[in-house]
Amino acid sequence: MASASARSVRSAIQAAPSPKRLTAGDASTAAGVKVEEAERALAELAARAGGALEVTTSGELVYAFKDDFEEQLLARDSDARRVAQQEEFLEFAEKAVRTAFGASLLVSLLVVYVAIAAASSTERDERRRERGGGFGFGGGFGFNIFDVFYYTSPRPGVRRVYADGEQEEEMNFLESIFSFVFGDGNPNDGIEDEQWRLIGTLLKEQQGAVVAEQVAPLMLEPVDATQGEDFMLEVLCRFGGTPEYDEITNRIVYTFKAAQVTAQLSSLESETWGTTSGGRGGGGGVLQEQLVQFSNAPAAQRALGVMLGLANIVGVGILGAKLGDPLVVRAMARDASGAGLLDSVKALMPLLSAYAVSFFAIPFGRNALNQRRNAEIDQRNASRLRAASAAKGNSPSLQKGLEAASRRKAKRTLRDSDVTFRSDRSVTDQLARDEAADFDRRLRGDADQTTLR
């Protein structure tokens, strides 16, 4: 929910005449909020409504909005709610379909081969009856459908061991079927959180002052900082930053006060603060997406799933052929139980056939889709790598920006000696400690003056 100051600034933008261009001071006076609150609200609203950040020749920052600003905000909020609801529903539906599809393989195999066995037995009896006796050739398929259930749970002691020594329970059969047919989901879930983590690390390393070129390689949607810096609006909103115009270099430097203050001490503090693995540009980090794998299931489990899928589709073909044999149909229709089984199997044949075909059609189509997705991922990764290379380049504009940022870098470490109050200690004890510390300081001061005399 938006804060009261953000709602006030939003109303001020809506009431502003066309063209809607406001400084932080304009929004502050019109909305009756603090300048800092107005500036943060302007940056947030500009990011959400497609606004732009302008810099005047005198170095003033202006936020420009389109005349349909309110309509764009309402549409964006409505779209976000609708997308969230759709994603929640699709996630539930996908899980239900995946579970039903995997379990249906066992049901399909059971139904198909029981029906084949019944039809074959009836066919043999009918042929013996027509010949007036004799014997039938027994035998079977050499396949026990109930053996499948042995594979539906992981066997004790079977674990996958990774290079780092961590062990993880191996997929059971049904999980492998899910993986083969539907894949293992998006490997880049959480990539947006990783984006913000990397950007936050960069801001800390650069002591709270950066230029757009340093942030560009970390954006999820590839950007070209030389073509515009609108993408920095979202970063400003996220980390409470402020754009500052540097009159010497004519560059915008983005400063983040929160990243310039820390209470964490490190033995490598002097080496890590203000540097990154990317060299003097400080833009060595790159956000990289993972390629979508066809399946993460063990090869043996996938092979078992393929074999059962083939057994199922072959069985459906055999069953269809038997149901098309007049001799089998005539024999099964002789008694009520056979006729009932015949009608049931005929009714199920479209579903059994569709399942048997889709068992292989879905992975085939998914593989083609994965190839297209991976090509897009490769393009985005390559774009970020180019942005990272540019952030370590020697272009005059970049060097000026880095010089301007270096003048605004700052670091303040809060140590125990800076603490004047702790919530886990009584006020009386802390006041007594402060008085003792003040007495010690005065005593040391008197001693120093005596020494000087």
From TrEMBL:
Transmembrane segments: 100-120, 303-324, 344-364
The protein's name: Uncharacterized protein
Region: Disordered, residue numbers: 387-419
Signal peptide feature range: none
InterPro entries, per the entry: At5g03900-like
Top-rank taxon, per record: Eukaryota
Organism: Pycnococcus provasolii
Keywords of the record: Membrane, Transmembrane, Transmembrane helix
GO CC terms in record: chloroplast envelope
